[in-house]
Amino acid sequence: MKVDFKTLKMMELRSSPGEVLDRVARDGEVFIVERNGQPKACLVPVSFLLPDIPPERIAKDLNKLDGNDTNYKLTINDSKELEISCLEKAADEDIVITVVLPHGYPNSAPRLYAEQVAPNAPHRWPDGSLSIFGATAAWNSKTHDAAHALNLARGWLKHYAKWRKTGNWPGASEAL
Questions:
Q1: 11 CB contacts (<8 Å, ≥6 apart)?
Q2: At what angle do helices 146-166 and 55-67 cross, to 10 degrees?
Q3: CA distance 176 to 173
Q4: Which of 60, 31, 65, 62 is nearest to 45 (CA)?
Q5: Full-prediction pTM beyond 0.85?
Q6: What is the distance between the alpha carbons of residues 84 and 53, in angstroms, rounded to a whole number?
Q7: Within 13 A of 115's CA, how many CA atoms are on the CB side?
Q8: Which of 14, 31, 56, 61 could lock 8 by a disulfide, CB 3.0 to 4.6 Å apart?
Q9: pLDDT tens profile 88-125
Q10: 14 phi and psi, to 5 degrees?
Q11: Are residues 65 and 147 in contact, defined by beta-carbon separation less than 8 angstroms?
Q12: What sign has the CA pseudo-torsion 137, 143, 147, 148?
């Protein structure tokens, strides 16, 4: 993506900060702020750094996780997708579940990953994400959220624990 930076003197920013921020937010303008002729900082639209997810939706999902007393860590990956990671326990192992909220979420279903699982663990897609029936096929952007996705991953972990103990993945009758 080509970015056309404009130079903005610090005095211009000081004299009309609201106008400059509106140009960045509304029009997508990008500025290099100079002080004493030296570049000091950049002003870019939030979309340059954060995922393409409505902020109010992120807040709603995080509030639900907080309400469930879920201990999580937030990061943004190289693709600017929001990642919610939680430490879980399964088969006497510490496993990190990561819910990746893709661009376009909630209209696009999240991807779920489990770190530190056996490399030959079944029911995973080639990219390592968990193959959970219904996570994408029956995703409903109005009723499902990150907490719902996390609960599906926790169900997968229960099956994983049984598989580690018995060598057999529970059948369809023992649905997630």
A1: none
A2: 50
A3: 9
A4: 31
A5: no
A6: 14
A7: 9
A8: 31
A9: 988 888 999 999 999 889 998 999 999 999 999 999 99
A10: -65, -35
A11: yes
A12: negative
User: ∠ at Cα 55 (147, 139), nearest 5°?
Assistant: 40
Copy the structure tokens of residue 151: 């609960």
C-alpha to C-alpha distance for 43 and 28, rounded to whole angstroms = 10
43-56 exposure pattern, b = at least 16 Cβ within 10 A, e = fewer: bbeeeeeebebeee
**Full DSSP string of the chain:** ----EEEEEHHHHHH-HHHHHHHHHHH--EEEEEETTEEEEEE--GGGTS-SS-HHHHHHHHHHHHHTT---EEEE-TTS-EEEEEEEEETTEEEEEEEEE-TTTTTS--EEEEET--TT-SSB-TTSBB--TTTTTT--TTT--HHHHHHHHHHHHHHHHHHHHHSS---GGG--
Q: Tell me how far apart the alpha carbons of residues 124 and 121 are, in angstroms, rounded to a whole number.
A: 7
